[in-house]
Amino acid sequence: MISQVTIKISQNGQARDIWFLFETDHHTLFDLNETLAADGTVYGSRIDSEPAGAGRRREVGRRDCILIREAIVSIIPPDVALLPPEAHA
After folding, report:
1. What CA–CA distance (Å, rounded) separates 22 from 19?
2. How far apart are CA 44 and CA 67, in angstroms?
3. N or C: which end of the chain has fewer CB within 10 A?
4. What is the 3-state secondary structure (H, E, C) of the chain?
5. pLDDT for 6-45, tens place per residue?
6. CB-CB neighbours of 57 under 10 Å
7. Residue 71 CA to its chain's centroid (Å)
8. Burial of 72 per CB tally in 10 Å (0-12, 13-18, 19+)
9. Which tens digit of pLDDT belongs to each residue from 47-74?
10. Is the Cβ–Cβ distance between 49 and 21 less than 8 Å?
11. What radius of gyration, in Å, describes the C-alpha atoms of the chain?
12. 81-83: strand order across its sheet
């Protein structure tokens, strides 16, 4: 499942939110939440992407990622369409 994750980061003493697309083996947001509630962490892939026009983003890479419950602001269904790396805008 691909979701859109917003986390809080601190940079130069300033806190701010960033978001990214995140893929896990979970089937629903409920399942993902259950894992976070039980373990406090969830493992998946952070999807690096770039704008591809009209509510779309193109995948440019993936990185293994472990999210911790305390850093997460929200997890929602993605509000952008993800295009594969080879797609052209």
Report:
1. 9
2. 8
3. C
4. CEEEEEEEEEECCEEEEEEEEEECCCCCHHHHHHHHHHHCEEEEEEEEEEECCCCEEEEEEEEEEEEEHHHEEEEECCCCEEECCCCCC
5. 999 998 999 999 999 999 999 999 999 999 999 999 999 9
6. 19
7. 12
8. middle
9. 999 999 889 999 999 999 999 999 999 9
10. yes
11. 14
12. 72-76, 2-11, 14-23, 41-51, 56-68, 81-83
Place of tokens 């295009």: 83
Write the single-letter amino acid at 60.
Answer: V
Q: What is the per-residue pLDDT for 86?
A: 82
Show the tokens assigned to 76: 């929602």
